[in-house]
């Protein structure tokens, strides 16, 4: 059974994340969306809100679960017996950054990272862009899933 972890802060989940997750669901027997908790980071949305956004967005997907974790992603992967880490790439800068992490993770634990390119329609979207649109009361419909739009009101 192939199990993958898609880690992130998901503050909030975006249509770019949704794009990667939707395509990855068919590549793995089980996909765990893992919300990393970093106490030194300030989040726009509470952990509970972020969990709910993702659960609501993927409520009809049987092989997807949402969990939270602290510490190293590789340690979390070992705890839940995950075989792969999934990462989405929007641009060459993402690749360079993620490549170093993927190599380190493999050396630490032998866990491979699978990269999926975001679609051209969503490659420009980031959580920080979504937060900025929210801050200025902009239209999120082309950037975030329905759960985020409704939960932000």
Q: How would you characterize the overall build of this protein?
A:
The chain is of the alpha/beta class and 153 residues long. It has one domain (3-151): HUPs (Rossmann fold), CATH 3.40.50.620. The chain has 6 helices and 5 strands; from the N terminus they run βαβαβαβαβαα. The chain has helices spanning 15-24, 47-57, 73-79, 92-109, 127-135, 146-151, and strands spanning 3-8, 30-36, 64-69, 84-89, 112-117. It has a 5-stranded parallel sheet with strand order 3-2-1-4-5, with helices on both faces. The chain starts with a strand and ends with a helix. The mean pLDDT is 95.
Give me a quick take on this structure.
This protein has 153 residues and is α/β, with parallel strands linked by helices. The chain has helices at residues 15-24, 47-57, 73-79, 92-109, 127-135, 146-151; strands at residues 3-8, 30-36, 64-69, 84-89, 112-117. Strands 3-2-1-4-5 form a five-stranded parallel β-sheet, sandwiched between helices.
Give the arrangement of secondary structure elements:
Elements lengths: L2 E6 L6 H10 L5 E7 L10 H11 L6 E6 L3 H7 L4 E6 L2 H18 L2 E6 L9 H9 L10 H6 L2
């Amino acid at each position: 059974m192939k199990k993958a972890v898609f880690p992130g802060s998901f503050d909030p989940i975006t249509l770019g994340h949704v794009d990667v997750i939707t395509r990855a669901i068919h590549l793995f027997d089980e996909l765990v969306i893992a919300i990393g908790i970093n106490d030194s980071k300030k989040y726009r949305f509470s952990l509970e809100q972020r969990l709910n956004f993702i659960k609501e967005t993927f409520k009809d997907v049987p092989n997807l679960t949402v969990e939270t974790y602290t510490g190293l992603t590789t340690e979390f992967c070992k705890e839940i017996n995950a075989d792969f880490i999934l990462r989405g790439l929007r641009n060459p800068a993402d690749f360079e950054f993620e490549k170093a992490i993927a190599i380190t993770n493999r050396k630490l634990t032998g866990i491979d990272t699978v990269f999926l390119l975001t679609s051209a329609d969503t490659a420009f979207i980031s959580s920080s862009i979504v937060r900025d649109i929210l801050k200025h009361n902009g239209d999120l419909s082309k950037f975030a899933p329905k759960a985020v739009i409704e939960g932000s009101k």
